[in-house]
Structure prediction request, 314 residues.
Amino acid sequence: MRQVPLGASEVGAIGLGCVGMSAEYDPSQQDDTRSLTVLRRAVELGVTLFDTADVYGPFVNEELVGRALGPHRAEVVIATKAGLVHDPDQGREVPNGRPDHLRAACEGSLRRLGVEVIDLYQLHRVDPAVPVEESWGAMAELVARGWVRHLGLCEVEIATLERAHAIHPVTSVQSELSLWTRGPLDEVVPWCERHHATFLPYAPLGRGYLTGTITHARFEQRDIRAGNPRFTDAAIAANRPLVDEIRAVASEVDATPAQVALAWLLGRSPRLVAIPGTKRRRYLEENVAAADLRLAPEHQRRLDALPPPVGERY
Ligand SMILES: NC(=O)c1ccc[n+]([C@@H]2O[C@H](COP(=O)([O-])OP(=O)(O)OC[C@H]3O[C@@H](n4cnc5c(N)ncnc54)[C@H](OP(=O)(O)O)[C@@H]3O)[C@@H](O)[C@H]2O)c1
Prediction:
């Protein structure tokens, strides 16, 4: 697989997002035994970057990832996150970027992952109640203690990146980026290129929509898409022309829509590592194969020209 720099290491251009194994997508289909097989198959296929977070589950996704990757520790790069916590009263995740919380969260992640050091530790959201200097400074201390190798941020703008980078190098930025969510291409991806940081697009398959497999809005209650404006029946129907064009390109290049969506992304920047999420071996193998798919300029142009989607991303 093509390699992309990430801090002092290199990782394959297609990583694996692990949230769906324990939360957010089709909860009734989650099965740890099957997920362990998927995680180990990913290692065999040359996937090196695995993305999780303490809030996925919460906690159980890190345990699963740690259990699967333990025997392969030297071959893989484990990325996790802190700074979002589940609030049972509000029934949703809320930011907590306080230094004491981040230190305790890191100890918990090390224990659940079963590792001595976390390769990439990401601030899941910047807490509006805590200056980023305080959260990032606490995370830099974790690097100094030897608990963490590199630091990343999620969903941030340039001004925040600059403030953090002035204190400790930003190794990665993780934000939503795909054929139907392109915001980071304007400034954040170029910033990463200029500062030798790696950009990790999350939801690179548009939470499954861009693969052409979602045709109606019948989601389980705890599926994250159940409350997402792009996943109402009306939005699913209105955005069908995007999928039709992706499918048309896919048939011309003898690939699947998921592979075209990932290949388009990888063509955007040499500093980009996509982390499609799946709990199924078939999807994993399909997604990994996209690393070898190069789209011709004509196909890139047709995908570049897709209309913006109907519906906000959250
Ligand atoms: N930093 C953040 O705030 C943040 C937010 C969201 C996600 N993330 C990270 O980014 C990763 C990727 O994003 P995501 O998982 O939310 O969204 P995604 O990768 O865009 O989509 C995941 C969905 O697509 C389906 N899928 C995967 N491969 C497929 C294929 N080849 N054909 C058809 N369907 C396919 C999955 O199905 P199955 O589940 O049935 O396999 C799942 O329903 C996450 O796993 C997580 O690690 C980070």
Residues 259 and 290 are 5 Å apart (CA to CA).
